[in-house]
Specification:
Elements lengths: L9 E6 L3 H13 L3 E7 L3 H11 L3 E3 L3 H5 L5 E4 L6 H10 L3 E5 L6 H14 L3 E4 L6 H11 L6 E9 L6 H6 L3 H4 L1 H12 L3 E9 L4 H5 L5 E8 L4 E7 L7 E8 L2 E5 L8 E4 L2 E4 L6 H22 L7 H20 L3 E2 L4
Parallel strand pairs: 1-2, 1-4, 2-3, 4-5, 5-6, 7-10
Antiparallel strand pairs: 7-11, 8-9, 8-15, 9-10, 11-12, 13-14
Length: about 350
Amino acid sequence: MAAMNNPSKIGVGVIGAGRIGQLHIEHIAQNIPEAELIAICGLNISDAESLAEQFNVPIVTTDYAPLLTNPRIDAVLVASSTDTHVEISQAAAKAGKHIFCEKPIALDLQQIDETLAIVEAAGVKFQIGFNRRFDASFSRVREAIAGGEIGEPHILRITSRDPAPPPIEYVKVSGGIFLDMTIHDFDMARYLIGDEVVEVYATGGVRVDPRIGKAGDIDTAVITLKFQNGVIGTIDNSREAVYGYDQRVEVFGSKGMVTAANPPTDTVTFSGHNGTRAASPPYFFIERYKPAYLAELQAFFTCIQEDTTPPVTGTDGRAPVVLGFAALKSLRENRPVLMSEI
């Protein structure tokens, strides 16, 4: 089991200084007193240096290797590109560092299984960055279901729609909509219902941007899930919701229903002769989920301090990737796919 150098402070190195890495750096430096940010590793050295100066971080590098040999660093946050997650996570585990890794661990199940085995052998914490679990509204929905407030759950509905499609160059390397976008919804489905999916049926098309179709992907999808406990779920995805970032869930059960709606950017309502209008949902996912990103990091550092199991394990990180492969197979073959086939 990896041990902390200073029980009062967890030394941290962040690998990846892009959009998510910057948010994690801000949270660790400003909002998590039990952690001490020791190093930033980023391919763009000027960006990394700027962040280090802003948040008073002593070490800046373009190579993550020195972070793994630094005795002051107890844990690393892997916020680099997806194709580096396996290499860095495996090296960090072997170096005895606790790991927070952004989703997905990898887009290859053999690589994921190899990583999980190395992590287990090293005895380090390994938490996957499915931040939506830590959204206050979704957490409350989970509590209502687990606490029996709606009785036996029967139907799950998840809506997840981006405000605008990603760049085509990103689409080409993303792994496709199911492994890039729907992967969050697959995780949310397992989290809310507390059970495993046994069958997936996916259908979809190109309704937003023809270039996405030319890149071999789809931008609009509906996925049906069948759970082992009998719950039936649906997920609907779109790459473009012109009104903002649309994230809603509903679970219907034998004693009632629980829902989580989009939070408005403000609570102002204007009424006039042309009708009534209110604020739209947040436009960007960081704006919507910034508190959830902080909560997941706090949970990670707590599990290190208290030596408990991370709230989102490597197994939790693997399952949505399997679901993504099943959805892709279903789409291509136009039939329901059993999870046992993957």
